[in-house]
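W.,

You were right to be curious about this one. When I first looked at the sequence I had no strong expectations either way, so I just let the prediction run and decided to look at it fresh. Below is the sequence, 209 residues in total, followed by the output.
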Amino acid sequence: MKQRAVFLDRDGTLIRDIPYAHRVTDLHLLNNAVAGLRGFMALGFKLIVVTNQSGIGRGYFTEEDMRHFHEALEGQLRAEGVELTAIYYCPYHPTEGIGPYRRPSELRKPRPGMLLRAERHHDLDLGASYMIGDRERDIVAGQAAGCHTILVRDASGAIPADLKARPDFIAPDLLAAARFVERNERPVSAVPRPAHRGFLPLTPTLEEA
């Protein structure tokens, strides 16, 4: 039986958004992140992080640095009773990457490659899954994969001024996102999802009541 997942952007959604974070001292979980993740686990969702990490491609840090950072993240969450199923990252950048890292990639959000790779690895039902992030590229990637989408506000509580994509919900944090999913689990799962996986038309956003 296929599993449901919550795909999570990392910086600004799960942890504090520090530019090119890669040191363990840069790792700070956001308020209500753990409570939200526990809520998703209680609903039976797998938790999968999908994150653009062009700092690797730019030469600011290495993939080994990123592995240690993610091990620390997993350790912090495990200590709080939260288990991540997987972390996927894209190290490539089409114009700023160095050497083999300088190239377009289907893995780089807003493309849906990381979500589609996770679908294959973990036998996921993307139409019953959610993509959650703080940027338009997260929403577009989720829509392209056929997922429901939730935008979380940035640290100031603002919505990106140039947001054009239409998420299913806008939440102040992951706990509010989990409560939305819990309230709407049956109605949302009944909504037909697009059969194709191209980019979807951009329409006005929905606000949290």
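Here's what jumped out at me. The helical segments are 33-42, 54-57, 63-79, 113-122, 136-145, 174-190. And, maybe more interesting for your project: The chain has a mean pLDDT of 89.

Coffee later to discuss?

I.
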